[in-house]
Amino acid sequence: MNEDNRLSENEFQEAPQPSPEKPKRAKRVVQLTWGKLTAIIACCLVLSIGCGIGGAYLIARTNPSSVIYQDTSKIVSTGSQDSSTIKSVVEQCANSVVEIQTESVTNGSNPFQQYVSSGAGSGVILTQDGYIVTNHHVIEDANTITVRTRSGDEYTASLVGSDEQSDLAVLKIDAAGLTPAVLGDSTTLEVGDLAIAIGNPLGELGGSVTSGIISALDREMTIDGQTMTLLQTDAAVNPGNSGGGLFNANGDLIGIVNAKSSGENVEGIGFAIPISTATDIIDELIANGEVTSRPTLGVSLYNVEDEMTASQLGVDSTGVYIVQIVDGGAADNAGLRSGDRIVSVDGSEVSSASDVRAALNKHKIGESISITVERNGQTQDFDVAL
Fold first, then answer.
1. CATH 2.40.10.10 fits 182-288, yes or no
2. What architecture (CATH level 2) is domain 93-172?
3. CA-to-CA distance for 11 and 66, rounded, in angstroms?
4. What is the CATH number of domain 299-385?
5. Which SMART domains match (predicted)?
6. Chain-centre distance of CA 314, in angstroms?
7. pLDDT at 266
8. Which of 163, 167, 193, 355 is catalytic?
């Protein structure tokens, strides 16, 4: 939102014209009695109070309070992170964030051996009747999913849909009267904006709040083989925060927390999926249980990362290779073949399957993508209709 530019008004008066010189008079000395002085002070106080009340009324008329819905306005703070602002956001948003507990059952070496593993994460309420967004990796392979609200109520959740590529999933619980988050507009964010994370760190500290700023926008990261464009924040996030909410100073949901950088000497680097990127995927998951609008090449890719592997596979160099093609798919129709090494996509060199997927994600169904491959020592260009 553009800031209001308030221009000060300057009053100009014509310079007084010189008048004929008059005889000088002695300066008049004004003597104030105590009664006159008291009257003057009283008048000033009345005038001051009147101006203050009038100004407050004018501000109230020009900035009326309203119900917040899909609020994409931007608060401009003139100071540092105000604790009262953070407290206000928490009061508004904390009930919209839930704890998630999962259990996964795996079979052992014989049919009588089973192993149960548990996991934990966070989620954000989308609707009053119980739709919840979280991360794909939070509920991946889970046999049971339990959701706990801030009030302490527990529900068994069903999986509506999940998408590994975007790391998003939607759950549904049988509930009513929940407090949904207000979805914001992450495209209006700027580096330095206030960021507040609410989640379930370590899987046992539900409702925890941390604050920081937006450290970077459009940060391209590869996580578990998936290349994503994420928001970076220095608000502290830990295992268990995944799937929780990242909120702005208005209390709008601007991101779904999904990762943190860890390692020696690494602090204050967390990432979140921008909500403006997530909304279309969430809608598709609710409607179809999967993402159906994403274009595909119809190929299986394999990364050859060293010369030894290349020698074992009988190929000439490292890179990303097509190992399988779906009959009648986009790549098959364009003339690509198994064994082709993909050199570049849309003119940009690629060295891994994640690079290819990242380039593909920039396109929509019905568009064409340009792919250059190496085949039998020769490079060939293909236009692939998606």
1. yes
2. Beta Barrel (2.40)
3. 37
4. 2.30.42.10
5. PDZ
6. 44
7. 59
8. 167
Q: Are 257 and 263 in contact (CB under 8 A)?
A: no
Which of 136, 137, 185, 354 is flagged as catalytic?
Answer: 137
pLDDT of 252 strictly over 90: yes
Say which DSSP state 160 is in: E
Active-site annotation holds for 84: no
Reported pTM: 0.69
**Is 153 a catalytic site residue?**
no
Domain boundaries for CATH 2.40.10.10 within the chain: 93-172, 182-288
Question: Residue range 338-343: average pLDDT?
Answer: 93
Residue in the structure block whose two tokens are 């160099």: 317
Residue 167 annotated in active site: yes
Kindly indicate the confidence band of residue 308, based on its pLDDT and cuts at 50, 70 and 90. confident
- List alpha helices for the chain, DSSP H: 34-62, 83-93, 136-139, 275-288, 307-313, 330-334, 353-360
- In the chain the first and final C-alpha atoms are separated, in Å, by 37
